[in-house]
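As a representative case, we now present a protein record of this kind.
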Amino acid sequence: MTEQGRKKKLSRRGFLKLTAQGAALATAASCIPHVDGEWDTCEQTESELDPSLVPASHVVVEVSSELSVAQDTWDIDPQVVQEMFSKGLMTLTNADSLSDAWATVIPGYEAGQKISLKANTLNPKVPSSPALLSTISESLARNVSGISSDEIFTWDRTEREMEKAGVSPKTVGVACLGTFKSPDDEDGPGYESDSVCLSGKKIHLSKILTQQTDHLINVSVMKNHGASGFTGCMKNHYGSFSNPQDFHKQCELHIARLNAIPEVAGTTRLFVMDALIGVSMGDTHMPHDCKPRRILLSFDPVAIDQRGMEIRDEMRALEGMDPAGVAGYLEEAEKMGLGSRAYELVKLDI
């Protein structure tokens, strides 16, 4: 397998040009929350993605185990999950050990740098599972040379959402941070005062992403989504900025562009999809309705979301249902060079 590590830096030059609108627009625009005097429109020019961020591999490793989720309940077995993830990571990186695997995922790691796991905890019934988050954080702590457990953490929009989803230091073994404590309590790192431009509107990225993350592991959930067509790794970053509610119309464009923003693309090292349980028939906020019993790993966000969408439709077929809506953002992201829908699938059964 060819070199697969993703490089850290992405040049801003020529990719997203950020310009504030003139005072003439002030009366027509509404203020961005948390940032006095900032207006919500902007002009954006796009160019091709920096070649250093194009995935070198379109492999998706799919690890399955019938023992990962109980037959009669929704309980997940942490020990089985640990074995699934470890074998999947070594297969993806073609490594003989977990230390070699992580060296491929995070080449050039330096002591003191921070590694964050971006979870999805918006739906407390179907979050990125604590068992998987704990497995990844423990694997990092044990196998990345020079790292301290204090330099690994999990994060999402708010601490309250994480707590409701059962994602806490006690369950995942590392610190759990929210950009805010809750929607009503803005205690926390907050959002950057400087904006970036997304589809003609200003957004403010979480300071957890911009100031506290050197290397990011995107840990998503396999869920259906009425607006975007699918919730996977790429839509996971709707929890990384201030005003996602403004980006649900035409979200096939917004999701692709969001994942090409330098602060997102330039820090991401690995994509992991929690498909142990999922939502295949309802919308993203609905309770779990299927047990795929799988974990997906890839360096390609387009490929892993494409495969996740297909698994969702496999689950629907088992219930006699037609495939759900296609995630249009995958086509847009492929055009931008973020990845490929034509992936190579490697299946492992544990």
Remarks:
- The radius of gyration is 19 Å.
- Residues 301-318 form the longest helix (18 residues).
- Confidence is low (pLDDT under 50) at residues 1-39.
- The longest strand covers residues 268-279.
